[in-house]
Amino acid sequence: MFDITVYSHLEDCEVGLNWESAYAVALELRRAHPRIDLQDVTLGQVFEWTVRLPGFSDDPELCNDEILASIYQEWYEVTTND
Known about the structure:
Elements: H1 22-32, H2 43-51, H3 65-80
């Protein structure tokens, strides 16, 4: 597992966010929504919040539920392992 400080700020990351970077996306979502109760988050919200992240540069049409679930799982694990 990566040290969370490595991706704590997108500007520190040389590569933009995309659907294949679920862990980095999860870290940015956590930073953008620090007080959210993940049990109330839907995959639709994960999608909307992801495509609005600064530095997200992938095609929204390439997304599917499996990708969103992967991002959600990473977000959940990062949050619960604090």
